[in-house]
Each structure stands twice: as structure tokens, then as C-alpha cells.
């Protein structure tokens, strides 16, 4: 059975759902699940529909072509893809390997509908892990002098390898605004605090100083404003006065791994639509 | 602006969403939010649509009448109501008042779209609270001998007062199978455990004996099988070895109040559809 | 059985626990539970011991007098009180009554070991609730001109009524630095965000703008720095893109009530010791 | 600096804490942190003290010898070990590798104070993972006929390798009562439900059938009664009607990994004391 996912964002208007679902019905397609959201603040409408094609349904190219009329009428940004299409993913990491390990295991055990096209790092720490799993490892050391050149190299790799998603799995370098721009909407970072608390460096040390009773992690799309991009997922964990900054970091690693994995899965399943500087997550 | 809520459950089939949304579009109605779910196990389909009527939309009676054709075609159980219709609620309580106090405050502060038509109790404990808030209080003591008669009295009250929802807010009497049947789908109970753990009596004492590290509460529709009805909402709270059964009960009271209030709100907003012995909660 | 609670903070040193527990043993007192914490950062030591007095134990005054030698040796800040002593509490509130309602119910049902000596408000909204429960209600409207005078009045009340704890249960006025100083360590505020995120005004509106996926509440001791005092307790609740700022406020009310109630209980039970701008919470 | 951990369980009595802390003080030992609990139900007392030895403190053997007098007086079960002693761990697994992967990463990254002496499995699935990390892999297929023999082999390995802790990281075989007895208090299992709900086989399928709104995992010491041993740690995660049993299993894997890792760490740090069929967890 062929299955597809259609995502839409457009100005809100009367009749969009009817138009889309009628299009699907006349195309012999059956909705498996569908979710939509109209934002009263921005007057934008968001929709994600997972549908299967019946025996008499046209192929994907024809479906796309015939949907154009509806899409144009409602000024839609839209995307229609095969539900089993695998996301091509590039993982970037520095010296902390917990998120990498977690993503690699999910990949290995079939829990992520993604291919990991490569691992990029400014350290050699995880070369052996990558190679053991047969994943290309790219050592890309960054200095102030080489940053521009290395980022070009990275972007070239993204193009050449047709990367759909770059995951910053505790990659401790700040990307240039140009690179952020080039990767807009397809680069997810995990920040080790409950944003907007403790943006920037050393969040666990600062959480310890402030004496908070919960610590957290935030997965967000990367933008040129550090730690200010659209938030995809957050989670927290209880801590207390007896925890040192090192304890917080250790507890936090579990939260970071979970939050990043959830955000990556949501993105891969086309459940995250960007709404200005926020996300609409259609489960 | 007139607003309505349409809820549907029916056998799954191709084109239901299209049929419903097209009906709304041609009736000059605009979808505000909509959620649906097709259960692959039971092959049943569930939908809840909140829509507003445009200037040229017919009135509710006409909308209902004209929807019948679509409803019949898909063998729907359905309901179409005004979104601002207030639920008429009857609260039953014994001697523990935390859930009652919580519901009364929400009612008083406008957080629940409901009218509390009365409070029924087998004790006089909360008469003064009820009377202070101008809510009729019914003292309905139950003994094995009077149970049948008292339940008839209760059911009579439910009919006469056109009660939409009976809330057992820590009402410590077991309803007869007959009464459960008469109130099917419109009677919510709060059980003070994380079901299916600790069904029946004294769940906190038994949770203490078992040494669990989390305690919980469960709001469910009442059925003739004790604590076995469709679960609407559950929540837990962390506890530890130092907590006595009394501590567990005290901690649990907060969880119970929250869980019951959430379940009542979900029911009032027509978000809970029964699916065999389970619920579909369309947020 | 007489029971007492001893709380201690002092510079860390070898032998403190031995000295305290030996003092208790030789005084025919039996430890019921005890917790301690040595902060490696500040080199301060904190201890809370709940003990019962045997038949041959001296009375509280004598215990206090004889403990002085030990206390002096270790430069202790300390406090020894009857475990069943009731805290005299003053609640301040503006127009949002959920925390007040929650505290009043806990008080009424015996869940808080406290007497509510009065309710102070800059509005008349809750006069009838207070009076129904027989609690003195003080209407204390504040304008820029009258603020100094009204705060004096308040402080006079605190002295006269021997208030142990002032609870700002959604009191929407900022206290002057002088008043904060006078109430240091005995005034708890509930802030409707997960601090340090969204300090100051309108946290729910700002949380909505930022698109966070969890909202929270924070109970803290009031200091002259707005929303910067030592944090006692925090909690969060999951939200999503579909929630309006008003939805966040409604969800947040439950979190605020729970967090404030927990902090008040911890304070009443002498479990919260201040450690610079942080708290040590000895459970 | 030499550091030790002392754990005690004994009948409750006046003066135990004083006796222990005085013993430490006179032995030139300084308490770093200490926790105790007196169970009012069983009249048993539990204590865990982490202390450092001063320059004039005797060595561990002497400390142990000299503590005997105190221990005898109070009928203590006790244990005094070096705080940096590494736990020798044996991991047993079948075909689901998420808990194994999680434990191996924690081990590799230094987050667990343990040596993994071997991995035992009734399948060959994880031989390559084990060998890549240089951990001995033991293939131990079990059939009804060979079970007794294979368990003897296992027990022999436990003795020979001086294993402190056997971790059943989703090992899908039931241990015989004899083996359970031999490993009492040093064998931790992860069960993929929130016990006591869904004991036994296929908990996720049964959770799906019951329509629960939260699923969980439980780490417990193994006893001859299946899934009835003392609970060390539990956690839950929210699910909804749209999740299939496979979705529940996928969500559950994250919960299982976290709960098992926490329980293992608590055990390794000597924080878990058995109290009948319950645990006292001294943090």
C-alpha cells in the first residue's frame, strides 16, 4: 500500500480542510490520520495529513501536479512525500557523546526512519564509533581562521550528500549566521537548559548558582540568534540542593538525549511546521 | 458569532472527513479546530469538529436536519451542540472534600463551562459549603436496605434536573449495576490509584505495602465493573520510602483533584468519545 | 509524647553530627528523622532533626539552654521548636483567588499545621470568602502615594499578630525593599513562571510568544530583587502550540496552587534553610 | 583522601545515630553526607553514611574491626566499603538491546562506577557489540532441558568473576527460584510496566487494551515471585489513544533505559537497603 504525507501552511480561510479532503477523496486516497491548527494570532493555518492511495489513485507525481490548483487557490506552502521516505541525516558532535550514542542506537535498531550519511566533528573522539558502525566520519577542526572555509566544506557536503537534516548533537561551536541561514528549518540543536533560561554557555553551572529545583533541555531549529530559534521540544528533571554542577550535567545528559531524539523523530515524520519563531507540532 | 461542536463515531470508511468538511463548507460554516482518529484495531472512526457559523449559515436545528443524510450514509453516532452550552452537573461526595472544593472553585471562578445543579452526599459534612455557594444540597444516606430506593431517588433527580454529568468526587459508595447502566457515559469517577493497580478499597495503604515509588489517580467513566470503566485521564506523583500511608493519601489528594478536574473539563468540552472500554480524547 | 524540631546552619567542621546526636542521646531524646547537608561550595553545614523527648528528658527551655554550649562551639545559627507548634500565617492576595482557595481548603481540612491570622488584599474581592471562614479580612488598597503608609500598617499587623509567615498568594503589588528586608526569610511569593525564565510581568503572554513547550511556577522567598529570591519549589506542565495565553494561565493556575502549597508546607515544617541566595530543603 | 561508605540496617533504638557518629568522630573520620530512616511499621532503622578518613584515621580493616562493638550492641547488619570501589557487574540480555546500549555507554563514558565483567545472552545478537567494546560475551542458550545446567554455569561464573550485581537488561527468561535465592539482593530486573500493573508477559499489549493514559517501567530486585520483588525505581510517560502497542513499546524503551540506569547507579552507590519486600533508598 502506497502511503503519503501532505503538509500545508497557508493563510487561514474558509473551506481549506474541505478542499484538501475532497481532493484526496476524488483521488481515491484515504486519510489515515490528519491534524490541523489555525493560529488565531497570525491567522495562519497548518495541516498534516497522512493518507494511503487506493488502487485507482494516480502516482505521486500526478498527485502533486493535480494538487497544485488547490494549493494555489489557498496560497499554500506545501509538501507531499512518500511516508516511507528515509530522511538523510548528518550528525555534528564535539566531545560529549551521549546524544550521538542515543541517535546511533535508535538508527541501528530501526527506531528512526533515517539514514545517517555522516558524522562531523571538530574532534577525533568518535571516529572509532562511527567507523565501527560503517558511518563516514569527517574530522572538521574549526579555528577562527578556518571557520569560514570549514563551514563552506560542510555546506558542500550537505548539498552533495542531499542532507535533509543536520543534527547538532552537542556540537559546541557556534554556526555563522550565513550557515544558519543556509540550513534554516533543517538544522536542529539540543541546548542543555530549559530555554529561555540559561541561554549561552555553561547552563548547568548557572542553574546550580541560581538554585533551581528542575533542570531541562530544549531542542530547537537553529537560527542566527543563539538559542533563540523555534522550540520543538523541551523536558525537565527534578534536582535538589545536594546536586553539584557535575551532577546536574550527568542528570541533564539523559534529558538531552530524550529531548533531541523526540525532536528528530517529529521532524523526520514531518510533524513540525514553523510558525514565525515558534513551531506547530502536529501529532 | 454562533459556534458549534460536532462529534462523530462510526465505522471507518473512505471519504468521511471530506464528507463532513464539505457539508460544513457548503453550509457556510468555518472549522475552528478539528481532530479525528481511526482505530486500526476496531476499525472505528472518531471525529470532533469545532466550527463557527457564517452569516448565511442555517440555524442549529436546520444544520442538524441537513446533516442527517451524511450521518446516515456513514452510520454515524453523532451529536451537534452549541459550543457555549453549559453542562448541567451533579456532584456526589462523601467525607473527603478536596475534589469537591476544587470543582466548586473552578465553577465559581468561571473555569468550568458548567452549572452545578446540586451536591449529593451520604453525609452532612458539606451542607454548609454547598449552601454558602447557593447550591442545593441533598442528603442521601445509604444503607443496604435503602440503597435501591435512594438510587431511584437519585435517578429521578438526574432526570428532573436534566443532568448531563454526574461526578463522583470521592463518593465512597458503590453504585448498583442498574444505576451504572442508566448513567453510562455520563458518570465520571475519580479512583485514588493508578489503575489497573490497586483497584477497589484502600489503594494508598496497599501502595504503601507494595513499596511503589509513584502513586497516581485515575478518572474514568463508571461501569458495572468496579474501577474497570473507560479511563479518561491519569496522573502520578513521586513518593518514597519515608511516606506513611497517610502521607500518600495527602499527596494523592492533589493528584486526584487535578485528574478529576481535567477529566470533567474534557467531558464538558465534548472531547471524550467512548471506544469500547477505552476512550478517545480529541484535544 | 513531646516532639521537637532542631534546625542548624553553621560552618562545616568535623564532628558536628556526633556532637548534636550525642547531646540528644544524653538528654534522653530519640531521633525520629534527621537530614543534613554540607555544601562543598560555601563550606556551610545544614541540619534538621526531628526528635522525641523521653520520660527523663528536660523541658524545652532547659534543652535550649543546655544546647547553647554545643551551638557556640560550632558557631551555629539554630532553632529548636515544638514539632506541633502552629505557624501563624498571613495571606496576601489581589484578584486571582486560586492559590488562596487552595490554602484555605488545606487549612480547613487540617492539612496545614498553621493558623491563618488574616487575609490582606488590595481589593475587596475575597472579603466574603474570608468572612465565611471566620478569618479577619484587611482591605489595604495601595497607591503610589499611600504605599509607604500601607506597608507600615502591614508590618505593624505582622508584629502585633506575631506572624511567622507572610504568603503572597498572587499578590500583584511589588513590596518595597524595606518591607522585603523586614520580612526576610518569612515571606514566600508564588511567581507564575519557571524562573529564571520570564521574570517580571505577564509571564504567560511571554511564554506564549516564545513558544515554550512547558510552563511552570516558582515559589521563592521574597527579596528586594524582584523574582530573584531563594527558590523553594518549582513545577512545570506540558503545553502546546494550540494553547492561547489564556489557556496557559488556566493550566498555570493549577501548577501555581500546588507549588505554593508545597513551599508553604515545607516552610511550616522547618524544612527550608536559606543558603545564600539558594535554599537547602531537608525532606 | 580515603573515603568510605557505611550502610546499616538494624532494629530501631535510642542512640544509634549518636553511637555511629561518635564512633566516626573518635576515629578521625568526617561525615560527608548521611541519611537515615526509621520505619515506624517494621521498627527497623536504616542508615547510609559517606565519610572521609582524616590523617590519623586507621585503615579500613581496623575501622571495620573497631566498629564491631557498636554494630553488635545494636544488632546491625552492616557494610563498610571504599567509596571508590568499583562494582563488578554482569549484564544479561535477550534480543532487545536498548537497556544494554544505555548501560554500555554509561560505562564507556565513566558515568557508572562499575566494571562490566561480562554480557550473558540466550541469543548471539549482541556478540559483536560486546566484542567491539572488549567485554567477554557468553552465549547461554536456555531450553527447558538445559535450564538447570545453564543456570549452574551462570552461578559458577558469578562466583568465579566475583560479580557484585547481575543486571537483567531485558533478559526474557524467568530465573528459577534457586537462582533467585542465590542472587538475592544482587540481581536487578527491569520490568516494562508500572508495577503492580501488568505483571508478567506482554505488558504493553495489555496496557493498550486497558487504555491507560500513562505507561511505565519498574526496576526491582529479583525474587522467586515473578515481578513481585522490592521496587527500586519507577517512572512513567504519557501516551494516548492514538498509540499502537508498538508505539507504547517504543516510548517505553526510553523509560526502561532510564529507570534501569537509575536503579543500577543507586545500587552501585550503596543507596538501596532492603526492608522486607520494599526498599529504602537513601539519596
Overview features:
homotetramer; 283 residues; alpha/beta; 4-stranded antiparallel beta sheet; 8 helices; 13 strands; 31% strand
Unreliable segments of chain A (pLDDT under 50, ≥5 consecutive)? none
Shape of chain A: globular
* Biggest interface, chains and residue tallies: A-C, 31 and 31 residues
Helicity of chain A, as a percent range: 25-40%
Please report the distance between the alpha carbons of the first and last residues of chain A: 22 Å
Explain this structure to me?
The structure is a homotetramer of 283-residue chains. Chain A is α/β, with parallel strands linked by helices. Chain A is 33% helix and 31% strand. Chain A contains eight helices and 13 strands. In chain A, the strands form three sheets. A seven-stranded mixed β-sheet of chain A has the order 7-6-5-8-9-10-11. Chain A has a four-stranded antiparallel β-sheet with strand order 2-3-1-4. The first copy, chain A, has a two-stranded antiparallel sheet with strand order 12-13. In chain A, helix 4 links the parallel strand 6 and strand 7. In chain A, helix 3 packs parallel to helix 8 and helix 7 crosses helix 8. Chains in contact: A-B, A-C, A-D, B-C, B-D, C-D. The interface between A and C is medium-sized, with 31 and 31 residues.
Amino acid at each position: 500500500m502506497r502511503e503519503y504525507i501532505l503538509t500545508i501552511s497557508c493563510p487561514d480561510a474558509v473551506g481549506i480542510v474541505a478542499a484538501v479532503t475532497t481532493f484526496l477523496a476524488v483521488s481515491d486516497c484515504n486519510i489515515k490520520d490528519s491534524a490541523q491548527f489555525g493560529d488565531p494570532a497570525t491567522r495562519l493555518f497548518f495541516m498534516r495529513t497522512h493518507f494511503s492511495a487506493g488502487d485507482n489513485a494516480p502516482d505521486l507525481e500526478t498527485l502533486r501536479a493535480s494538487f497544485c490548483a488547490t494549493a494555489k487557490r489557498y496560497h499554500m506552502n506545501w509538501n507531499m512525500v512518500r511516508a516511507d521516505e528515509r530522511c538523510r541525516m548528518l550528525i555534528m558532535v564535539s566531545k560529549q557523546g551521549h546524544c550521538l550514542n542515543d541517535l546511533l542506537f535508535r538508527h541501528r535498531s530501526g527506531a528512526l526512519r533515517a539514514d545517517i550519511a555522516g558524522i562531523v566533528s571538530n574532534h577525533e573522539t568518535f571516529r572509532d564509533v562511527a567507523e565501527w558502525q560503517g558511518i563516514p566520519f569527517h574530522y572538521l577542526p574549526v579555528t577562527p581562521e578556518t571557520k569560514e572555509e570549514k563551514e563552506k566544506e560542510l555546506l558542500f557536503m550537505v548539498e552533495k550528500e542531499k542532507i535533509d537534516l543536520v543534527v547538532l548533537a552537542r556540537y559546541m561551536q557556534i554556526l555563522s549566521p550565513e550557515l544558519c541561514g543556509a540550513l534554516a528549518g533543517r538544522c536542529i540543536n539540543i541546548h542543555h537548559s530549559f530555554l529561555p533560561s540559561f541561554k549561552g554557555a555553561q547552563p548547568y553551572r548557572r542553574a546550580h548558582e541560581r538554585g533551581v529545583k528542575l533542570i531541562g533541555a530544549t531542542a530547537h531549529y537553529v537560527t542566527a540568534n543563539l538559542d533563540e530559534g523555534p522550540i520543538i521540544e523541551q523536558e525537565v528533571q527534578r534536582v535538589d540542593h545536594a546536586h553539584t554542577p557535575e551532577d546536574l550535567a550527568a542528570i541533564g545528559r539523559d534529558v538531552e538525549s530524550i529531548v533531541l531524539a523526540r525532536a528528530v523523530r517529529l521532524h523526520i515524520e514531518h510533524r513540525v511546521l514553523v510558525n514565525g519563531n515558534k513551531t506547530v507540532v502536529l501529532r
